[in-house]
Amino acid sequence: MVHVYNCHPFASQQIVQVEQEPGLFCSGGGALFVVVTGGCKVEAYNLEQEGCPLICRFGTMGTVRNIQYSKIGDYLVTIEEKNSATYLRAYTNWRYQAEERSRVGVRLLGHLLRGASQRGGAQMEIIEIPLSERPVSVACCSVTGDLLVGCENTLVLFTLRRQNQENLQNQSQQNVQSSSSLNSQQTFGQSEGHSSSSDHSVSILDFERSVIMHIPNFTPKKVALCSGYVAVQTELEALVLKLNTSESDALDESCDMSKTDLLEDQSDLLLIPRQQELLGSQAKNCDVPVSIEKTGLEDKGQYKLSYVLFRRFTPEFFTGCSVEETQLHSMQLHPLFTSNQSTSTEEPACVFCFFSLPSAGYLYSLKNGVELLSAYQYPERVLEAVLTDHLLHVITKNALQCFTVRCAAVAARIEEPYIDTTMKACPPSSLEVCALRMQLFIGLRSVCVHGPHVILLSTADTQTQEEPERVQQRRGLHLKEHTTLAGIFLAVGIDPTTTPALESFLSRPFLARRWTTSPPKESTPTGHGWNLYVVDTVSPLTLYNEMVEYSRQYAETNPSAQSLRHLLSEAHLLLCSSLLQTTEQTHRKDLEEALRENCAQLGDCFSRSSQKDCHLALPYYRMSGLSVTEVIARNRPLPSSPHSYGLGFLFYLNHYLLEETEEILSQESADEVIDIFSQSESSALISVCASPSMINISADRTLQVLHRLEDTAGVSVPLTITMATLALRLDDLQQFMQLLDRHAEMLLVYGFIEEPRLLIHGGGGGSQAYVRPTALTQQLAKSQPGLLVAGMVALHENNKVQLEQADGVFKELGCENCLLVDFWEATLMASSQDAVIQELLFRLTSVYIDRLLCTNPDKRSIFPQSPLRHKSLKSADDLINSCSHYGALYPWLIILCPPYTTSCLHQEALHKLQSLLCGPLSVGFVLPLLERLSDETMWGFSLHLLCETRRGRYDSSIGTLLDRCPQAIIAYANHHLQDKHLELWWQKLLPELCNRTRASADNSILLAALKETLVVVAAETNPTQFLELLPDDGTASYFLPHLLTCTQKHLLA
Predict the structure, then answer these.
(1) Which Pfam families match (predicted)?
(2) Do residues 194 and 96 touch, judged by C-beta distance below 8 A?
(3) 633 domain-assigned
(4) Which of 922-947 are b and which e, b meaning 16 or more Cβ less than 10 Å from the residue's Cβ?
(5) CA separation for the pair 89, 60 (Å, rounded)
(6) Calpha distance 605→567 (Å, rounded)
(7) CB 641 within 8 A of CB 604
(8) What stretch of H or E contains 163?
(9) Amino acid 493: pLDDT
(10) pLDDT bucket at 586, cuts 50 / 70 / 90
(11) Residue 778 predicted with pLDDT over 90
């Protein structure tokens, strides 16, 4: 579907004062090149000046059949005929003819002239480009300046070179030894000035044959070249190829000889191929074989060929269309650069391919995946079409018409990765195109475009004397075709005269018509009028303003109309396309301001849109730069309007209030938001009230709204917490407590998970974002710290807040020494993430050591700490019973550090640290922390001994324990000297006790320990071993009872 809008894209027009009737013309480099009828003279006119004055004129060496201009290198290339021969020539330095210089140099490709050329190219040169086949069409690359020539069954690519004067003599003695990569982005500046003959930096243009591609039975009518893409057009087929260089020695020989032979064998048959469209990798399945011929000039690798696009059309005979009405024309490859690219150094971000039938045009995007962007359905038969960045210009016999294009939609998505997210938006490339107001002319024949200038050639009478003869020939062919087909049907037993459908089918002429056309019609002396127009298009900003003015007609009648949205989307793409091409800051600033205005208008459209695309209101309003208050004002329904708030507007408000922004709404705006959601989406009121942007809402008024919501929707935990928060704002602590007491603590925790912003604000920017506590959090820290810690742990475990962010919340509350540690302990109990567990173990170990140093009763601490505000939520016993990371205290630790010998806080910290060391904690990373603790105190000694024991150093631990606290040795041995360490009872402990008892015979503690040790040794050894363990100087009467016990056990065994 093509939309039609009454917007006029043309500003003015003027007539070029051409003395003779134009035959062919092209434009570029600020000039219009006109080949007068007869084809042996070219006139150049200045398009940049009023009246298009003549720049220069020069003669050609033959009758020009095709002419093209290259911006890169500022040269013209022509296909000329003379004496029944066809030539390809390039004209360089043509601007020197403006000084009426008669000197013109003619040379062959690759052979540079001496004299004037060596002095800096101060004369026009004609370069003869020899070809083995007759050239049919020619094209220049707008990116590299390379030249593509289409011959019958062959494409030849010439690379543009710049030969320096230093190489002139060498060039005349040796052949070219290398050719550069096809994708090389060499550029040759436009030589608009006149170079001095003494300027040795001036270089001379030349061409080098790079690639020869053979396409059997495929005669191109038109070719195009752009940044390595090669496009070929026949009467009914369009083929796009991509040439790249490959480091491998083998070429990508795509020619399938079987296909070629098949086509040759069937050359005498009439084949009507089916319509076909093959995109991307599927294009290689077409029946058009292409092969590359080696030129011997490859130095950086071989050329590799890949198929990009193939499209075939078939004449619609059954609808009465003739062959002429189904011929392709206007093949074009169009590059587009983004605003952050330089056309002189980079490949284009996008490359588009356009070709057209008389009834329809097709625009494809080639890079980053081949895609059909738009199909243009013309209202009448189109003769030619030209694609530009902003518009598609087409001509019919009597009108010039413009269509919008989707190139900017593709380029914008390449330049801006955030498009199609909640941050930015752009109309899709699949958006239906529209036609703008047409400009009427008489007898249009041809069109070309240069910048804002559209050049048109019109003739009042295009009928030639040959037409009557062709009509007679066509009638004769028609009769022959009818007879041939009728004979075929009769041969198979079908009489076509008995079937009206077959009779109608046979009445159409197509059998004797091959897929060929007659040469282009040339003007004859019978023509009685012609004009060459230059029509200037308006600036994109002016056209945008006209589109906006036109859109107001829809906005007044139906603000949610599809046509209004479509027209504003067209205006958006027009501005985007202009921004891609504009670098001048003043003009760019105006375009950006217009784009913001357009985004606001699109946001208004989508805010009232249906559910399918209402989400687009959010990115467009963001791109507009409007504040929330301004957006609310734009979406207020009129008092007389029956419409309520749109889904897109509610979607925008929801997302805005869900995200953490710095914009705080005033009380008036915040109350209006509450009214909006209470009327349109009451279920979202809890989330709205929890938003930090709504901190200025009227608490009393909002509490009444929530009470009404509770009456209608029922009681819910998040709603109760929200109401409690509002009661807290009113300083009604009694109502606050009553509301919280409605639900158990665990249900309240689930409420915090459902709406985290009841406890914290911030965090929308990721794990590093700043998070701050709410007023409810501050109150819970005072009155219900357990609920606060449980809520924060739940948020952490559900990825609503990160560990560092939670630390910041407790530090801002001033609870870094109490509730923060409680939070770490509770998180350690709940977490299953290994990284979090290791981090928490390290933190808790450090905190416990700090507390031990802070509460040391033996001496004043040198580590000042703020006092604890309240008792820990979890005692050591609670942690041991509920957390696997806290182990049960070893019995000997109770003997070393009996309870009630130190303060309560010190004892709690000691037991928690001892419990951690008794658990699965790896003591390796704890040792550096324990260096801060002295082992002079018994509690310090117990921690160091724990670490030594956990490291398996039982020998040394037994000795140090006997030195410091022998009464704990049996408890220590009973707990640790088991299984594989059982032998330490008699290998280490028994000798130590014997020696120490001998030295201190009256030590009852050592004697008791020795007695217990002998009991264990007697139970675990046989009599012989026991005798060997006895000391030589021991008292027999002391050991005899244990020996007797050992012997009796052995006998029983």
Answers:
(1) HPS3_C, HPS3_N
(2) yes
(3) no
(4) ebeebeeebeebeeebbbbbbbbbbb
(5) 9
(6) 11
(7) no
(8) strand 154-163
(9) 57
(10) confident
(11) yes
Q: Bridge partners of 606? A: none
- How far is 812 from 775, CA to CA, in rounded Å? 12
**Residue matched to tokens 């087409």:** 394
Nearby residues of 928 by Cβ (< 8 Å), 6 or more positions away: none
Tell me the per-residue pLDDT of 608-660, one tens digit each, with 9 for 90 and over. Answer: 877 788 999 999 999 999 999 999 999 988 665 656 788 999 999 999 888 86
Tokens representing 594 are 């217009």
* Model confidence pLDDT, tens digit, residues 221-259: 999 999 899 999 999 999 999 998 765 444 444 444 444
In a 3-state reduction of DSSP, which class is residue 75?
strand
Structure tokens at 93: 């330095």
Closest CA to 911 of 888, 945, 932, 941: 888
Can you state the angle between helices 667-680 and 647-658, rounded to 10 degrees?
A: 130
> Is the pLDDT assigned to residue 406 strictly greater than 60?
yes
Rounded distance between C-alpha atoms, residue 64 and residue 907, angstroms: 105
Q: Which residue in the block uniquely carries the two structure tokens 């004859």?
A: 524
> If you search the block for the tokens 């609670």, which residue do you land on?
878
Provide CB contacts within 8 A for 601, sequence distance 6+. 548, 551, 568
396: left (phi over 0), alpha (psi -120 to 50) or beta: beta
What is the distance of C-alpha 652 from the center of its chain? 23
Q: Sign (positive/negative) of CA torsion 91, 93, 98, 100?
A: negative
Answer for the pair 433, 2: CB distance below 8 angstroms, yes or no: yes
Asked if residues 1027 and 1040 have their Cβ atoms less than 8 Å apart, the reply is: no
Residue 759: CA count within 13 A, CB half-sphere: 29
990 occurs within a structural domain? yes
Relative to beta strand 10-15, strand 3-4 is unpaired
| pLDDT for the residue numbered 639 | 65
Q: How does residue 484 score in pLDDT terms, banded at 50, 70 and 90?
A: low
Q: What mean pLDDT comes out for the span 139-159?
A: 93
How many Å apart are CA 580 and CA 318, to the nearest integer? 45
What are the pLDDT digits (tens) for 491-521?
A: 555 666 666 655 655 555 544 343 333 444 4
Report residue 977 as tokens.
């000297």
Longest dimension (CA), the chain: 151
What are the φ/ψ torsions at residue 891 (nearest 5 degrees)? -60, -35
In contact, 311 and 236? CB cutoff 8 Å: no
B/e letters for 373-394, b = 16+ CB within 10 Å, e = fewer, are: bbebebeeebbbbbbbbbbbbb
Q: Computed over its alpha carbons, how large is the radius of gyration of the chain? A: 46
Count of C-beta atoms within a 10 Å radius of residue 225? 25
Q: How far is CA 958 from the centre of its chain?
A: 67
- Asked whether residue 1039 is assigned to any structural domain, the reply reads yes
Neighbours of 596 (CB within 10 A): 15
Distance from the first to the final alpha carbon of the chain: 103
Average model confidence (pLDDT) across the chain: 83
Helix axes 540-557, 562-581, angle to 10 degrees: 160
* Over residues 799-818, mean pLDDT: 91
Instruction: Give the whole-angstrom CA distance, residue 269 versus residue 287.
Output: 17
- The answer to whether the beta carbons of residues 972 and 961 sit under 8 Å apart is yes
The dihedrals phi and psi of 81, each to the nearest 5 degrees, come to: -120, 140
Number of helices (H), then strands (E), in the chain: 34, 35
DSSP letters along 191-242, please? --S---TT-TT--EEEEEEEEEEE-TT---SEEEEETTEEEEE-SSEEEEEE
Give yes or no for a contact between 182 and 244, defined as CB atoms under 8 angstroms apart: yes
Query: How many domains in the chain?
Result: 1
Is 852 inside a domain boundary? Answer: no
For 288, the enclosing helix (H) or strand (E) is: none
Q: Which domain holds residue 1000?
A: 970-1052
Pairing of strands 124-128, 104-108: parallel
Cα–Cα distance measured from residue 984 to residue 11, given in angstroms and rounded to the nearest whole number: 105
Find the mean pLDDT for residues 185-209: 51
